[in-house]
């Protein structure tokens, strides 16, 4: 024991000094940048924001965040009754003008209608929030009809690309923003979400490429939320994985994180690489403990997959390719 104390007394002081000299200044710098980026937050008062999938979940709560700041809202979803409730709540929170446009984002004519009615009513469009999506909790080989998977891709991927196509001319005029709600499953494999993950990964690659094509006129932010507790996802996740599996983030907290990521215009350390190569916004990871951010850097180990998905993935490997 005396030997151990001697060794520790010999090693700890220089190690501590080295840590303070090498890492503490960097830590202070990152904290300073984190504080500075909040100094310039986009003023969205009076700006026109179109949100798809606004009847519930992330879309609903992102609408509330915009409403609190006085933005004007065009709310899109299939459920008219729910849209009316969200619209009224948004007015009470501070939005001066809210319209609802019921429809289906997987229908290209509806997507054109969403933009046309927004422009007809407000005269412009500043932000497009591509949020509409549906989950999947079915093992791929258990699809009764494989063509049933088409609807997931139609809504999650094509629904965002259709409406973006019609929105771009108006967003160019306003120097606006496109926000894409993808998912952490775009980069982390999840059992029983093969088609869903593919649809979300397609969103990331499409909008990363589009960002290059339309920069600097239009900025694009891609959000990668983790497991968000909503009326739509929570029952399915519990049935498929069990309540112990869910690492859930509250939907309101996730919406706040996304809204901050949209509005912050100061330098974000996470987006330095993107800025250097001509991009404008970094991904926003909304998981409360940055779980997926860490895993993306460390790769996904077979041990992690064995713990997380014991029924199907325990005997499979993942090499990060």
UniProtKB/TrEMBL annotation:
Molecular function GO labels: oxidoreductase activity
Protein's cellular compartments: Membrane
TM segment ranges: 6-29
Membrane topology: Single-pass type II membrane protein
InterPro entries in the record: NAD(P)-bd_dom_sf, SDR_fam
UniProtKB keywords: Lipid biosynthesis, Lipid metabolism, Membrane, NADP, Oxidoreductase, Signal-anchor, Steroid biosynthesis, Transmembrane, Transmembrane helix
GO CC, alphabetical: membrane
KW Lipid metabolism (keyword) present: yes
GO BP terms: steroid biosynthetic process
Signal peptide span: none
Family: Belongs to the short-chain dehydrogenases/reductases (SDR) family.
Designated name of the protein: Hydroxysteroid dehydrogenase 2
Organism: Arabidopsis thaliana (Mouse-ear cress)
């Amino acid at each position: 024991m005396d030997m151990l104390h001697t060794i520790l007394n010999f090693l700890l002081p220089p190690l501590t000094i080295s840590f303070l000299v090498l890492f503490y200044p960097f830590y202070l710098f990152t904290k300073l940048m984190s504080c500075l980026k909040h100094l310039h937050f986009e003023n969205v008062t009076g700006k026109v924001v179109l949100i798809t999938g606004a009847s519930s979940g992330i879309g609903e709560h992102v609408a509330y965040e915009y409403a609190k700041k006085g933005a004007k809202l065009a709310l899109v979803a299939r459920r008219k009754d729910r849209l009316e409730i969200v619209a009224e709540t948004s007015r009470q929170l501070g939005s001066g003008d809210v319209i609802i446009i019921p429809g289906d984002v997987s229908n290209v004519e509806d997507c054109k209608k969403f933009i046309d009615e927004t422009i007809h009513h407000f005269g412009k469009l500043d932000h497009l929030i591509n949020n509409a999506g549906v989950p999947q909790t079915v093992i791929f080989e258990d699809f009764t009809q494989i063509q049933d998977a088409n609807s997931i891709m139609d809504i999650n991927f094509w629904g965002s690309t259709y409406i973006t196509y019609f929105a771009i001319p108006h967003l160019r005029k306003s120097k606006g923003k496109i926000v894409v709600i993808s998912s952490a499953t775009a980069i982390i494999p999840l059992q029983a979400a093969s088609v869903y993950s593919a649809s979300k990964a397609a969103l990331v690659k499409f909008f990363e490429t589009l960002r290059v094509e339309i920069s600097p006129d239009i900025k694009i932010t891609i959000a990668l939320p983790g497991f968000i507790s909503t009326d739509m996802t929570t029952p399915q996740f519990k049935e498929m994985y069990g309540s112990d599996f869910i690492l859930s983030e509250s939907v309101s907290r996730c919406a706040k994180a996304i809204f901050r990521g949209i509005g912050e215009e100061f330098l974000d350390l996470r987006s330095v690489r993107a800025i250097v190569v001509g991009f404008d916004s970094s991904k926003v990871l909304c998981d409360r403990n940055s779980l997926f951010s860490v895993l993306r850097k460390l790769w996904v180990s077979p041990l992690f997959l064995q713990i997380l998905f014991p029924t199907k993935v325990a005997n499979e490997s993942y090499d990060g390719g």
